[in-house]
Amino acid sequence: MDNAISEKIEALTRRVQQLAQQQTTISNQLVQLINEIEALKQQAAGAIVTTPVTQQSIEQPVKTVEVKEVIEAPTRFAAPPTPVAKQATRPATASRTSSSFEEFVGKNVASKVGILVTIIGIFIGAKYAIDHDLVSPLVRVINGYVCGAALIGVAIWLKKKYEAYSSVLMGGGLAVLYFITFIAYSYYHMMPPGAAFGMMLVFTAGTVYAALLYDRVIIAHLALIGAYAIPFLLSDNSGRYAVFFGYIAIINTGILVVSLRKYWKSLYYTAFALTWIIYISWFVFSFNYYQHKFIAWSYLGSYFLIFYITFLAYKIIKKEQYGLHDVFVLLSNAFIFYLLGFKLADHEPANYAGLFTIINAAIHLTVSQVIRRLQLADRSLYYLLLGLVIVFCTIAVPVQLDGNWVTLLWTAEAVLVFWIGRTRQAPAYEKLSVGLSLLSFLSLVHDWFNHADRFTFPESGRVHPFINIVFASGLLIAAAYAAIIYINRNSKYRTGLEAGSPVLIFYNYVFPGIFLITLYFVFQVEINGYFRQFSSQQHGGSGNIFYDTGVGAFGFVVLLLYTMVFTIGCMLVNRRWVRNKTLAAFSAAAIALMMVALLTGVLQLLNELTIAYFEKGYAYFGSFEFAIRYVVIAVTALMLYTSRQSVKAFFPEPWAQRGWLLMVHMVALGFLSAEYLCWTTMRGSDNQYKLGLSILWGLYAMMLVVLGIWKKQKHLRLAGIVLFMVTLIKLFIYDLAGAGTITKTISFISLGVLLLVVSFLYNKYKDVLFGNGEPKDEL
């Protein structure tokens, strides 16, 4: 009942203050209006021609001149007879601003600086007396207590008339008592630790009482800092951490009750920061698991629950809406508890990491369900807590199996924060999610590098590709990234960011790229790792797949095949659901790069694998080393067909269509040349490959010209002519070097006949190709 009355009194007091501010504003406006009326009266003094209604409208406000005494502006009406009324109000405004500044300095700044200077003066005087041995230590300490008590006495005496000034004196007096006690204990050893501790505890209680008495949060902060300083000031390095942390827990409980009662939330933030800084510092520098196991777990849980309950009390009792700073505090408290607890669990012989993660999820689930069922707080708090439950449940299984929980944790946080930001239209959350997303991606890349090393140099036995925690974690992270992309593209979830914001650009363009990179390397790392491990086992620790021709060639071809299949999947998904031109452009660029790799290196590797399989009679991967060349041909054909559909859908421009068609013919010629070289080499006719290759190129060039004439496609005809020129240059510069007479004869006759056929076709269809009525090229 007393609490309800106190809260009612506080609410009414705040209302009175609001009304007083409104009254002051209205009084200022009345003064300006009355000044204007007086000026108008003086203007109208020469012509007294007014209607009764006008007189009423002028005389009515004149009766309210009594307000002048309330707002203390009686002299403002003594204005000279000038027509400009605004000039009469400007000096008043300037005077009031000057008075406000003077009042601020005189009432606030001067008192605080004065008490600070006084305290410094007391300590300077004490130091002088100590240095010159003017008084005994006992007298020095007594004088210090007298000075502190005197300041407190004066503060109490002045409280009724000068409360603000009195509160400054009170804080200064209490500070003097703190430090005098510390000096008496530490420097002069005039009291035992228990007595000093008890006195400082009494001073802390007195400071809390003064804060409540004066209703000043600054005094409460002084009590808080003093309370935390006591153990450090009086420490004898005895290592009694249980007493120390118990004292901190008791202080936190009392201070946070005061914080909640008076709605001094800054106390909560200060206690939160100081407590975890102290605990983490001890954990890092002084913690010994076998000596401090019980202490560490007990007070870790106590501090977590104290701050968690206080946070919920603000939301439930005070009906406070949560903001970004609240989300930061809640997440910080949850993850500090989790990370430290995870580290403690790591010292146990058995692996309890997964169980500890589930316990965290259960705590937040219980609280969220209580809030939902009893409707104790804003529904947004329920969703936030439910998000934490999802986070911990998501990482529970991977955490139990391996240590990739950091990456999963950051990823889950990124999804949670982005979802909150988009559903609540809070831009700050979306910005925070950007950093968390980048952190999770960089952490995943780090995990991949470590995972690749484990394939090459396994520490504890063979690593199983696709059956390991890194692969499972990668799939979960890719799924999380996909969820963010889905929320971002869903029109149901509108953003609070401005159009063109860098954050929106990140989510629309950069983040989908991160998702594709993640999804690609989740499988690529496993495939590459398999061949690294295979090579390492075959060659005693040399894990680079390129150290061995057979393993290296086959592994590289398999990776290229995987890249092709991945690109085909991206194009199909893009055409069916995403319909993004940027993704189509990147897919086309990836295909072009793969075709360059195919023509410049992969075809040669395929020939080496086939020749090694048939001639040496040995292969690491059996008949797959031969069959894979035709798998590559089939997958390449499928990829080019799929890319044809993608180009037609997203790039209908003629240049794109022509470029794609020329690339197809180039790849087809490359495959034909590779097949010819492979089988002539296997038949022992490798000395004649120059002649046959030139004839093959000539035939293909003639086919391009014929096809260009038939389809009326100029770019095909030009491609055929260019190929003829390349073939002729190859014939004269490369083929004829060291060739016999028969070879030269066959080469020249064959290419000559082909050129004559091409020339005949041009002459036959010249009217169609070059006449005025020539139709435009069709694709």
Automatic annotation (TrEMBL):
InterPro entries: DUF2339_TM. Residues 2-50 form a coiled coil. Keywords: Coiled coil, Membrane, Transmembrane, Transmembrane helix. The chain crosses the membrane at residues 109-130, 142-158, 165-188, 194-212, 217-235, 241-260, 267-290, 296-314, 326-344, 350-368, 380-399, 405-421, 428-446, 466-487, 499-523, 551-573, 585-606, 618-640, 660-679, 691-709, 716-733, 745-762. Pfam families: DUF2339 (PF10101). This is Beta-carotene 15,15'-monooxygenase.
